[in-house]
Every structure is written in structure tokens, then in C-alpha cells.
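Incident log, structure service

09:12 report received: a user says their structure output differs between two submissions of the same chain.
09:20 pulled the input from the user's history:
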Amino acid sequence: MQKKWLGLSLSLMLAAGIAGCGGGNSNKGAATEAPEAGTAAPAATAAAGGNTATSEPVQLKYWTDDRHDQEYIKELINRFNETNGENIQVELTVMSENYAQSVDIAFTSNQAPDLLRLKSGNTAEFVKKGYLAPIDGYLTDDIKTKFGSVIIDNVNRFDGKVYSLANTGLTLRLIYNKDLFAKAGIDNPPVSQQEMVDDAKKITEQGKGEGVYGFALNFKSPKSAFDRSIREILSLSGYQGLGFDLKTGQFDFAPYSQTIEYFKQMYEDGSILPGAETLDIDPLRAQFAAGKIGMYLSFSTEPGVYQDQFPTEINWAGALAPTLDGQIKGTSEIVSAGTWLGISAKSAHQEAAWKFMQYMYGDDILKTYHEKGFGIAVVPTIVEQANNPEINGMEGFLVGEHDSLWPAVPSVTPEGSTYADAFFKYILAGGDAKAITEDLNTRYNAALTKAVEKGEVTVTPDPAFDPLKPQGE
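09:34 re-ran on a clean worker, output below:
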């Protein structure tokens, strides 16, 4: 499996081409020094950071919206704080679903953190807003050799400048409770969306008296809910999962609209866990761990969640998501590959921040991160070293024949509501699905045209695009 993924990470990630697409409590941990915005040499620590073992400590703030790995990250930060030898202290803050908005507020109010968790869905926007410092000045020959094959234009390199380095990628799967399926007389996870609707209804009818429901979504953030569910269904069905048509180079939400109808049906059937409208992902996970949810869709982070964050004894597994009609016509998209940590352009301690990044990108940490199941390694040298994670349920998330990377798609901001908000409203209140879809197409393509004219994104239609071979491999 590891050799196969190595081939994917080398051959597929190099091909990503179009412009990049698109909690809550503070926890203290360790700190390190950060470099200047890619201009100072790493050796300039004393001058740039101004700290010694006897001076006041350099305090760094690291913000992340990852919660599945927070206990491990806390351990790493504590270790760094105790051993870095340069009086650097890092404080960890784990944000909620409004991470991007919190970052915006922090930068506009001059309260920006020193380090940021970066993902494929936010890096391009953060670069465009000037939030990030390039790290090219810190990249030694050894680092370039280690990460060179997974430094990708419009993912972690923009206009020739590198802002982050890769760690892992995420697969998407249906997570289901085997015991609840068995109690409802269901032998296997659904392969079509109609089966998903039917199974959710059966599980709810069988278990509603005990507070058990067939399906759940974290609708507190509609985009988060859809991007961890519909995205997977669409890519396996042969469509790009964020509403973009790679063949035409235009947005087309018609396939998305088809998928939404099945979610709407589950909502109308009463098969979705009550309160989903305000449900965040962690409360959803807690309910699943308690045996109250039959199934939901999410990332390959979930096995680690149920080992460390919400330990559970329930009999659960991961499986490929259902498709629109039960036929696999595309590959399941591997997402969030290419980025991990980044340095704030407003940090006064960029040298120190880089030292923390160097520590976090060490072989032992990246290897352990994979083996603990927090993400699937994409750095070739780490793939070669790492063992498959020994975590209950992880076998269902490992990269297989139906998984691959898809080309990056343009990230645009339309006037009016987003696709997630528009379709979420439709699920709850109904309306004219065709009109909603046409409106989304009009507004998103208008925003795309403006972004292309401004030079913010580049779009190259690919009429020969094959969803079974999304990178042409």
C-alpha cells in the first residue's frame, strides 16, 4: 500500500495545475523561534529573534482548526518548549469551524498569530490577503530534496514563492456503525444514494426509541458538512466535488443539486439526528461514539478521533461513499494534500517560527503522525519509512484503487449566498431546486470571470478530462 501511495504522491501531485481551491478552546503548549518572511537566513536567529537562554522567552502563538490531532500536537509542543534550548515558547489555540473568519479578524485587528495551520481550502486566500510569509529563504538543499516533489504551484507555491510544506493528505469515506446496521437488518453499507436514504430510514425506525438515528451532518457549518460528504459522493460519481466542471472550465451545480435531493429526503424522513442544524463536528462525533448515529461521511482523521478524542467500544468501520446511482464513475478525491504549517507575515518572531516548523517537519514527527492515523503521509521519504497505522478502523481509509488526486479548482467568492448556504436552506425550507442551481451557476461563473480578468486565477478547460484518471495517469 505504501509503495502505491508513493507513486501517487510523486506522479499525481506534480500534476495539480489549476489555481488552488477551495473548536473552540485555547490550549497552551510549547514555543519556538520563527524566521523572517523568507528573506533572512536561518543563521540570523539571534539578531532576528533576539532571544538567548537567559533572556525573556520568545512567545509564539500557533492557531489551528484541527481537533482530531490536538492531543498529539500538545505533546509535541510541550516537548519543543522544554527542549529547544533557545527559550522559545509556543502556545496552541484550537479554533472552531469559523477558523477563516477568526484569522481575518485577527489580522485586521493586529492580533495575528505567529503560525497558522494551512489547508488547500485556505492557503490561496491567505496568500492573496498577505497573511503569510514565504519560507524560501529557509529551505536548505536537504529540505528541497525531501519535499521537492510535493511542492506544487497554486497549492503551496504561489508566484514562485513557497509558503508551506506537505505532510499528509486525507481520504473521504462513509463511517458507519456495524451493529446498528445489523439491528436494522442491513448487511452492507450503501452503494447508491437511494440505498443510503433507505438504510438511514430503517436504522431510525428501529432505534428512534433509544435516541438512534440513521444519519448525521454537522450543519453548524454547511460548507464543512457538504465538503466532507457531497464532495466524496460526487467525485466517485464522476463529477468534481465542489461544483466545478473541469471539462468546460465553468461552474455547474446540476450534479450537486442531484445529490442534495437525497439529503433533503433524509431530512424530511426524520432520519437525520435532531439538532443537526446547529450541530458541530465534535458533538456529532460524540454521538456517534455513543452509538446514536448509524452513519455519516468524513475524512481519514476519524479513526484517530475515536482512539484518542472520543474513545469508543462500538463496532464501526469506514467504506467508500455511495454514488448517485450505485456505479463508480470516478475516483475518490484525496484532499488537503500539500500544506500543513505556515508563518504569519505579521509575526515579529519569524526566525523562531521557522525553528518550530523545522522541528514539526522532522522525520520522526511526520512518520509518527502517519502511524497514529492523523493523516496519510505524502512526503516520499516518510512514505518509505512509515508503517500503516495500527488504529481500529483505519483499514477502511487507506489509499486504494479508487482513490487519487484531482486537479485543483479555482477559488472564487460569489456575490450573495454560497453554494453551501443556498443548498442548506433548500434542505430545510424547500424551494425551486432548478432555479437555485441556475442562480448559483450564474453568480459563481460571474465571479470566476472577474477573477480571471484580474489575474487571480487561471482556468484551462479540459474537454478530454477523465474522472477515472483525474490527473491523466
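09:41 both user submissions now match this output. Likely a transient worker issue. Closing.
09:42 reviewer note: The longest strand covers residues 58-64. The CA atoms of residues 164 and 342 lie 5 Å apart.
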